[in-house]
Amino acid sequence: MSSETRPDISRGAKHLVDNFPCLSTVPDGCVLSREALSEPVAFGSVPVIDVGGLEDPTRRVRTVEEIARACEEWGFFVAINHGVDSPLMEMMLQLVAKFFELPFEEKMIYSSSDEACPVLYGSNLSSDKGMHARHWRDYLRHFGRPFNNNTCELWPTNPSEYREVTKTYLEEVWKLAMKLAGAISEGLGLDSNYMERVFGEGSQIVACNYYPKCPQPDLTLGVSAHTDRGGITILMENDVEGLQVRYRGKWVPVPHVAGSYLVNIGDCVEIMSNGKFKSVEHRAVVNKRRERIAVAIGNGPGYDVIVKPISELISKASKGPSHEPILFKDIRFKEYTTAEMKE
């Protein structure tokens, strides 16, 4: 292939696919290792939970038990009847899609060599740094709450509604996260407000991911295997599935459920639960047919919170023969968040 027609990956995955519509192979240097791609895939069933049961006194106990079981066994569950309005979810997805449709030069306003920048646009395809280097994904990432120090004023201004809708959306997602935190607290035998008190003012990281269709999806990934550093991740996607969860050593695809959220436990909750609830590896795969758009909100404690095993759980675990008293060291959440952003 001549230099004139050789695909240019420097502008990211979407630009590559849009400008080379006849692209039939993954560009040289973007094929992942056989070790990363050859792990077995199995069919299973990530739990689907009607979290509306948390609002019904006659169903709350059973719903809490379902959430606790999912957190302990899977680290993931699909949440339906979650209380966030469908029109708001759809508007958020549409605005994210519009952002990625902007001219490359306009998106590059938010590009930076500082991976911990408060607002960051980039592409893993054109990057040779980090655990997701050369992966088939473009992204927009920025902070959410706490909404101070002009946080929202750093967000994109195009689409024009992005700031207003995103702030409203994040507020609704936080309410859902705290409702789930209450169920998780109860599932650990604590009072329902325990984790919300620990989280304090809280924090959010917004990860908007764009996975273009790929000519050879079996040779690459959208995002490689990883766990989330935060507390409770709440993800929505367009109607294209692509997430896989590691379960008993194999990758289990998560089917798309219209109007649902995919919820997973992050490292912070695993630490706080002293290992009872699991932060599980997951990854994103790509396909030949359609682009996938996913918006993940990482909901965590305030940045100055010291994340550590909950003392009440340590005292309980130490009385039993099957648990180590303390499985994790204390860490300030800001340090953990900075490490994730750089990855």
Secondary-structure map:
Layout: H1 13-19, H2 34-37, E1 48-50, H3 60-73, E2 76-80, H4 86-101, H5 104-107, E3 119-123, E4 138-143, H6 162-187, H7 194-199, E5 203-211, E6 223-226, E7 232-237, E8 243-247, E9 250-253, E10 261-265, H8 267-272, E11 282-284, E12 292-300, E13 306-307, H9 311-317, E14 331-332, H10 333-342
Parallel strand pairs: 1-2
Antiparallel strand pairs: 2-10, 3-4, 4-5, 5-12, 6-11, 7-10, 7-12, 8-9, 8-11, 13-14
Q: Specify the CATH homologous superfamily.
A: B-lactam Antibiotic, Isopenicillin N Synthase, Chain
Computed Rg: 20 Å
Number of helical segments with 4 or more residues: 10
- Helical content, roughly? 25-40%
Major beta sheet, specifics? Answer: 8 strands, mixed
Number of DSSP strand runs: 14
Distance between the termini: 33 Å
Quaternary structure type: single chain
What portion of residues belong to β-strands? 15-25%
Order of helices and strands: HHEHEHHEEHHEEEEEEHEEEHEH
- Domain count: 1
* Helix/strand structural class: alpha+beta
Q: Describe the strand arrangement of the main beta sheet, using strand numbers.
A: 1-2-10-7-12-5-4-3
How would you describe what is shown here?
It comes from Asparagus officinalis. Keywords: Iron, Metal-binding, Oxidoreductase. Belongs to the iron/ascorbate-dependent oxidoreductase family. Residues 202-301 form the Fe2OG dioxygenase domain. One of its GO terms (molecular function) is metal ion binding. With 343 residues, the protein is an alpha+beta fold. The chain has one domain (44-342): B-lactam Antibiotic, Isopenicillin N Synthase, Chain (Jelly Rolls), CATH 2.60.120. Helix content is 29%, strand content 20%. It contains ten helices and 14 strands. The chain has helices at residues 13-19, 34-37, 60-73, 86-101, 104-107, 162-187, 194-199, 267-272, 311-317, 333-342; strands spanning 48-50, 76-80, 119-123, 138-143, 203-211, 223-226, 232-237, 243-247, 250-253, 261-265, 282-284, 292-300, 306-307, 331-332. Strands 1-2-10-7-12-5-4-3 form an eight-stranded mixed sheet. It has a four-stranded antiparallel sheet with strand order 6-11-8-9, with no helix packed on it. It has a two-stranded antiparallel ribbon with strand order 13-14. Strand 1, helix 3 (60-73) and strand 2 form a beta-alpha-beta unit. The longest helix is centred in the middle third of the chain and has 26 residues, at 162-187. It is globular and about 65 Å long. It starts with 12 loop residues before the first helix and ends with a helix. The mean pLDDT is 90.
